[in-house]
Design brief:
CATH topology of one domain: Arylsulfatase, C-terminal domain
CATH class of one domain: Alpha Beta
CATH architecture of one domain: 2-Layer Sandwich
Oligomer: single chain
Largest sheet: 4 strands, antiparallel
Structural class: alpha+beta
Strand order of the largest sheet: 1-2-3-4
Order of helices and strands: HHHEEEHEH
Number of strands: 4
Number of helices: 5
Radius of gyration: 20 Å
Shape: globular
Length: 189
């Protein structure tokens, strides 16, 4: 894996007859972190008062007019610790392009290893991240560097920052549907 678009950009496919329009598509940016708040919204549930990272993307899935991503900016961490890129609108500032640890998939091409960072890409025009436009857009680089510094102050990089929270846990979890397909007594799907 990597924080280049080929390692981060994956489609979401949703199927819900009568709710999600067949053949619909959006280019809005979402994240796996959005699944919990979205499913909670669909189920009529309430989220805890504690801050969570995701946002409700149900308006996008349901094709609501004017629906937009709940994320103004996204931060790409490599292997959960190292901040390597930030995305804001069509702009992506790639801060590093390191390899996976020894023995893992994801070796970077020699051209990437030899590149200087940070590198700025306009993903609307260059989805393959082939042309660094940092020199032509110093203002955008400065804006994104400011976001990077805020993220480092809050979440850290190469370690844990003060804004990191402990994962939630379920005490004594019990499966609702068992591996053989039987449903736990009392559970109404």
């Amino acid at each position: 894996g990597s924080t280049w678009e080929g390692g981060m950009r994956v489609p979401t496919i949703a199927w819900w007859p009568g709710k999600v329009a067949a053949g619909s598509a959006t280019m809005e940016i979402t994240s796996m972190m959005d699944i919990l708040p979205t499913f909670a919204a669909f189920a009529g549930g309430k989220l805890p008062e504690k801050k969570i990272d995701g946002g409700d993307i149900s308006p996008l899935l349901l094709g609501k007019a004017g629906a937009a991503s709940p994320h103004a900016d996204l931060f790409y961490y490599y292997r959960g610790l190292k901040l390597e890129a930030v995305r804001s609108g069509p702009w992506k500032l790639q801060l590093a392009g390191g390899d996976s640890p020894k023995g893992k998939q994801g070796k970077q091409p020699k051209a990437v290893k030899a590149a200087t960072f940070p590198r700025l890409y306009n993903l609307a025009d260059d989805i393959g991240e082939s042309t660094d436009v940092a020199a032509q857009h110093a203002d955008i680089v400065a804006k994104l560097q400011g976001l990077v510094e805020q993220a480092k102050d809050d979440l850290g990089t190469d370690g844990v920052g003060p804004g990191c929270r402990e994962m939630g846990r379920v005490e004594h979890p019990e499966p609702l549907i068992h591996h053989d397909g039987t449903i736990r007594a009392g559970f109404q799907p």
